Amino acid sequence: MTQTFWSAWILLWLSAIGTCAGNLFLKQANLALSNPGLLSVVISPWFVGAIACYIFDLVLFTQALQHLPVSAAVPVASGLRIAATVILADVFFNEHFTFNQAFASSLIIAGIVMMSRP
Q1: How many CB atoms lie within 10 A of CB 5?
Q2: pLDDT tens digits, residue range 45-82?
Q3: Computed over its alpha carbons, how large is the radius of gyration of the chain?
Q4: Cβ-contact 60, 35 below 8 angstroms
Q5: C-alpha distances in angstroms, 58 versus 17, 28, 51, 73, 115?
Q6: Angle subtended by helix axes 45-65 and 3-31, to nearest 10
Q7: HSE of 1, CA atoms in CB hemisphere, 13 A
Q8: Single Gene Ontology BP term (predicted)?
Q9: Minimal CA–CA distance to 100: which of 86, 80, 110?
Q10: CB-based burial, 91-108: b 16+ in 10 Å, e otherwise
Q11: What is the pLDDT of residues 25-46, one digit of tens each?
């Protein structure tokens, strides 16, 4: 495997982390405000941070797609985003990480491993 191939997978993982962080920032934008109206959420620093994370995600995902097949990259990135968001929502927002979520996340990770293999 070439260094470019592995670099593309690293970019894909970082892209997924960017989306996950953006989702968590959006949640925090709503929690940080006593009256989360649309305008107050949009001008919140947490919301601006979420937008920055999503832009970060798009740039890295675009770079990863230069070297990875879209048929593998999209499912892997989607699975990573789901699994990481469930785990980090428990850590940062005390949302309960249930057995069903743990089981489903392990299936997602197993699928990622299978799809990542050449």
Answers
A1: 11
A2: 999 999 999 999 999 999 999 999 888 888 888 888 88
A3: 16
A4: no
A5: 11, 21, 11, 13, 21
A6: 160
A7: 12
A8: lipopolysaccharide biosynthetic process
A9: 86
A10: eeeeeeeeeebeeebeeb
A11: 999 988 888 777 778 878 889 9
